[in-house]
Design a protein that fits this description.
alpha/beta; Rossmann fold; single chain; globular; 300 residues; 10-stranded mixed sheet; 10 strands; 2 domains
Length: 300
C-alpha cells in the first residue's frame, strides 16, 4: 500500500480567501467559499482590489475615493451573499480592501490560507479584479489549493447531493488532490468518482490488442494502489472507480456534468500516461461548469 503523505495538511486556523469584484460570478465564488468554510469551521476572508494604473496622480484622488466606497459596497454585498449561502451558521467573516494588484495579493496570502477562491471571470474595465487571467495565474502560482467557481456555485440542495470527481494518475502529484477530494466528500456526505485516464494515440497503430490489454492491467494496478489508503481512511465515502482510455481532459469533463465539485492536481507524471499535466488542469478550470479545485501547495 502506498504510504500517504499528510505533511501538507492545512492549518485548521487558516482562512479560506475569496476574491470579489462586484461581478455575478465573483459573488458565486463568495457563496461557494462560505459553504466550504462552514464545512471546515474556517474563517472566510473576503478581499477586493482597488488597484489603479501606474501614474494615477493626486489630481484623481476623487476617483480613488470613489473606488474605495465602491469596494466597501462590493464587500458588503459579498458578505450578505456569503451569509445567505450558510443560513444559521455562525460563520466568521473578515473583509479587506487592498490597493495592490489582486494576483500578487492572492499569491502572497495563499502562503497562510487554507484555500484561495476566485470566479472564472470578472468585470474588467477600471476594476480589473477577476479576469480570466487572474484565475489562471492563481491556479499556477498559489501556495495552497485554488478553487475556480463558474456561474454554478453548487450551493443548493440538489447540486450538493452530487458526488465529488477527482483525477488520479498514480503519481505523488495526485496525492494532494485525493486528500482534498476525500475530505470534501466526507464533509459533504457524498461519494467520490475517481477517474484514471490514459491515452497515446500516436502509438495506437503500433500496439496490438494484447498490448492494449496489458497496458490496461498495468494502469488498473496503478489506479488501485493510488486509491487503497484513501478508501481505508474514509470508510464513510463511497467510491466509484472509472478507468478509461481517453484524453484526461475529455474524460473528466464528461463526468463533471454529474458532479458538484472537480478536484485535480496541478500537474501529473507526464509521459505516456500523463494524467494531470498543467495543460489538463488549466483546460478543465476553463471548461467545467461546476466548481473546480486545483490542488496546489508546497509540494505541488
Amino acid at each position: 500500500m502506498t504510504e500517504q503523505n499528510t505533511s501538507n495538511t492545512p492549518d485548521p486556523e487558516a482562512p479560506i480567501i475569496a476574491a470579489v469584484d462586484g461581478s455575478a460570478v465573483s459573488y458565486s465564488a463568495a457563496a461557494w467559499a462560505a459553504a466550504d468554510a462552514a464545512l471546515y469551521g474556517s474563517r472566510l476572508h473576503l478581499i477586493t482590489s482597488i488597484a489603479v494604473p501606474p501614474g494615477f496622480g493626486p489630481a484623481m484622488m476623487t476617483e480613488l475615493d470613489w473606488l474605495r466606497v465602491e469596494g466597501e459596497r462590493v464587500l458588503t454585498e459579498a458578505e450578505r451573499i456569503a451569509r445567505t449561502a450558510v443560513p444559521g451558521d455562525e460563520l466568521s467573516i473578515t473583509k479587506e480592501i487592498t490597493a495592490g494588484h489582486i494576483v500578487g495579493e492572492l499569491v502572497e496570502r495563499s502562503r497562510s490560507a487554507r484555500m484561495i477562491v476566485v470566479g472564472s471571470r470578472g468585470l474588467g474595465a477600471v476594476r480589473r479584479g477577476l479576469l480570466g487571467s487572474v484565475g489562471a495565474a492563481t491556479i499556477r502560482h498559489a501556495h495552497c489549493p485554488a478553487a475556480i467557481v463558474h456561474s454554478i456555485s453548487a450551493t443548493d440542495p440538489v447540486l450538493m447531493a452530487r458526488p465529488v470527481v477527482v483525477g488520479v494518475d498514480g503519481s505523488e502529484n495526485s496525492m494532494p488532490a485525493l486528500r482534498i477530494a476525500f475530505e470534501e466528500a466526507s464533509r459533504r456526505k457524498v461519494g467520490v468518482i475517481a477517474v484514471h485516464s490514459w491515452s497515446d494515440m500516436s502509438a495506437a497503430l503500433d500496439i496490438s490488442v494484447d498490448g492494449w490489454k496489458a497496458i490496461r492491467v498495468t494502469e488498473d494496478a496503478v489506479f488501485a494502489e493510488s486509491m487503497a489508503g484513501w478508501t481505508e481512511r474514509h470508510p464513510d465515502v463511497t467510491v466509484q472507480r472509472i478507468l478509461v482510455q481517453d484524453h484526461p481532459t475529455r474524460a473528466i469533463l464528461d463526468i463533471s456534468d454529474r458532479a458538484q465539485l472537480v478536484v485535480v492536481g496541478s500537474h501529473g507524471r507526464g509521459g505516456f500516461t500523463g494524467m494531470l499535466i498543467g495543460s489538463t488542469s488549466s483546460a478543465l478550470a476553463h471548461s467545467v461548469e461546476c466548481p473546480i479545485i486545483v490542488a496546489r501547495g508546497p509540494g505541488a
